[in-house]
């Protein structure tokens, strides 16, 4: 009887150990500070991943001072780059329609954005704000659809696969590969990409997507140093305009 009890107790301990190991190895539980801010900043500055900023309406390489200006959590001009974008927003289709009323090719696509939030658990205000930044409020060439020789148009609203030196060609090439032949497909495809490649990797805030504080200089969504701040400011304006409930703000990234 005693041996049986010991065996059962041993099995319970092993099961608990396996469960704890699974939990703490999950990307969502790897939010531990691995660097001081100064260490992380230096890694970002020295990284092969480019960091750029706008100067005279064109992108140039950002120096340490410019990187620090946007990377420093305490200097942030909006808390919305620190909210969990995997949390859904309680917003009506009518409100989304109102947000999209003057957004070029995105106008009238409220159902697609609502479906994207529902299907992939990605904050709809983030999806809207990111799309507005990437497409010039729905008016860019890539957003309007790049027409191929066979007459088909391909859409890309999130700059996925688009590189600064030739964003239209590289972005439309990625859209062709994914079969985004309509705005609706591009909206859903963009949400799926963010969910699988970033949120599921533990990068569930704009700040983490841009700076990846637990692995600086690696797996960054954008090159523009102001990317997270710019999208966060747009999000903040819509939250205020529509009196939306804000998710928890998380800023504890560095030692």
TrEMBL record:
Transmembrane segments: 7-24
Domain Mannosyl-glycoprotein endo-beta-N-acetylglucosamidase-like: 98-243
Matches recorded under InterPro entries: MGlyc_endo_b_GlcNAc-like_dom (IPR002901)
Gene3D superfamilies the UniProt entry points to: 1.10.530.10
Coiled coil spans: none
Keywords: Membrane, Transmembrane, Transmembrane helix
Ribonucleoprotein keyword on record: no
Pfam short name (any one): Glucosaminidase
Family, per entry: In the N-terminal section; belongs to the N-acetylmuramoyl-L-alanine amidase 2 family.
Official protein name in the record: N-acetylglucosaminidase
Organism phylogeny: Bacteria, Bacillati, Bacillota, Bacilli, Bacillales
């Amino acid at each position: 009887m005693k041996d049986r009890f010991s065996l059962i107790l041993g099995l319970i301990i092993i099961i608990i150990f396996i469960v704890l190991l699974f939990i703490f190895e999950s990307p969502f539980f790897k939010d531990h500070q691995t660097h001081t801010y100064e260490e992380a900043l230096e890694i970002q500055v020295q990284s092969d991943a480019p960091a750029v900023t706008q100067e005279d309406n064109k992108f140039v390489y950002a120096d340490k001072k410019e990187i620090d200006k946007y990377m420093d959590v305490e200097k942030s001009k909006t808390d919305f780059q620190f909210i969990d974008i995997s949390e859904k927003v309680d917003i009506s289709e009518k409100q989304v329609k109102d947000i999209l009323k003057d957004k070029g090719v995105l106008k009238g696509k409220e159902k697609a954005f609502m479906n994207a939030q529902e299907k992939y658990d990605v904050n709809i205000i983030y999806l809207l704000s990111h799309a507005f930044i990437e497409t010039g409020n729905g008016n860019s060439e890539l957003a309007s659809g790049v027409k191929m020789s066979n007459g088909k148009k391909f859409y890309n609203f999130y700059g996925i696969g688009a590189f600064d030196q030739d964003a239209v060609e590289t972005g439309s090439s990625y859209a062709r590969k994914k079969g985004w032949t309509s705005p609706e497909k591009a909206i859903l495809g963009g949400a799926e990409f963010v969910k699988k490649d970033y949120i599921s990797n533990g990068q569930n805030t704009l700040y983490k997507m841009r700076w990846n504080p637990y692995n600086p200089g690696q797996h960054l969504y954008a090159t523009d140093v102001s990317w997270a701040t710019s999208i966060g400011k747009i999000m903040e304006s819509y939250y205020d305009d529509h009196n939306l409930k804000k998710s928890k703000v998380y800023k504890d990234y560095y030692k």
